[in-house]
Amino acid sequence: MSTNAEIKFGPFPITKQFYLVLTHAVHQVFLKTQHSFGVVNLKPILPGHVLVCPLRPHRRLTDLSAAETADLFETVQRVQRMLARVYFKTDRPEDGGSFTVAVQDGPESGQTVPHVHVHVIPRVAGDMGEGEAVDEIYVKMASEEANVGGALWDVTRRPEPGGGMPRVEDACREPREPADMHAEANMYKEALERVQ
Amino acid sequence: MSTNAEIKFGPFPITKQFYLVLTHAVHQVFLKTQHSFGVVNLKPILPGHVLVCPLRPHRRLTDLSAAETADLFETVQRVQRMLARVYFKTDRPEDGGSFTVAVQDGPESGQTVPHVHVHVIPRVAGDMGEGEAVDEIYVKMASEEANVGGALWDVTRRPEPGGGMPRVEDACREPREPADMHAEANMYKEALERVQ
């Protein structure tokens, strides 16, 4: 693995200040654990589409320590319970809907930001239309907007999606205002207090 | 969660004998850990497409204990290192290619078999063609063939894919012979002995 100094997350050099920048400047982070954080999106594919990431800016899933790996996916589960409460109105995720949980682990699989991030996307019947449109979620997941922490991005410096993935320009997915994302993050913070 | 007695994995009622059936009758399992196992596919989407599952037949990711969750994703990482050695010819996955790592967590996200399974799919540039064809991997992942442990299935009883996902009938993905799958499983077992 290359040294951290060579890695950027959007316009931000990834340094020990990374997390501070993310939390205090952007207000999109709704959860921080010992090794992980959860962040809302600038252009969620579906309502509740969030990212769960390790605090350390690892490029690849195989770079995480055992403690970081355990914490990352326990955080995914906790976020699923929270999202189930918010979007499915239930304490039991299996009663209300499903989740797409996916990691694009490397550029050939569609990863654009070289910082491991787990997509967690609440799913309900018909949410992406019927027939082949259902799978459009994966096309959108491969777009650069779905990979980012929203306002972190300098639009002049966004990378093209890797792996030959098409760039999705969807008029229905307008970037949101920072205040909207902050409000969403706050809603999730409150909901997290009510789940294990 | 419903009682286990109501759950089937393909034609097999899921009982405490589940794992024994899987290992001794089918020969597709290439790795068993304390809480997880890895299994080859009847119709892999791409070479090296395997599934990593908890030994206990949990329906949903949020049903796994902390120990099971940690073990499941540590096993995913170990399998990635093994697949990198076999398919990318490197000990460092990031040097050779990428991975699609995905869980369809519930029927509305395309899960057909009610037993948590993590798809681990090696990816290299151009492996799914160019342009929009790149994302065809997700359409195929939603097909019933990609969700199964191969010969476990009684073709007369295969469920239709959930969540409105299209059924993929790809002439290039003929079911393999049990001996071929057994040979693949053995190749992975040997490769696992050389990775951490």
TrEMBL record, chains A, B:
The keyword Phosphoprotein does not apply. The record marks Y138 as: Important for induction of apoptosis. InterPro entries: Bis(5'-adenosyl)-TPase_reg, FHIT, Histidine_triad_CS, HIT-like, HIT-like_sf. Pfam families: HIT. A motif (Histidine triad motif) lies at residues 115-119. It is an enzyme of class 3 (hydrolase). GO terms for molecular function: bis(5'-adenosyl)-triphosphatase activity; nucleotide binding. Its cofactor is Mn(2+). Substrate binds at H24, N41, Q104, G110, Q111, T112, V113, H119. Keywords: Hydrolase, Nucleotide-binding. It comes from the Eukaryota. This is Bis(5'-adenosyl)-triphosphatase. It comes from Cordyceps militaris (strain CM01).
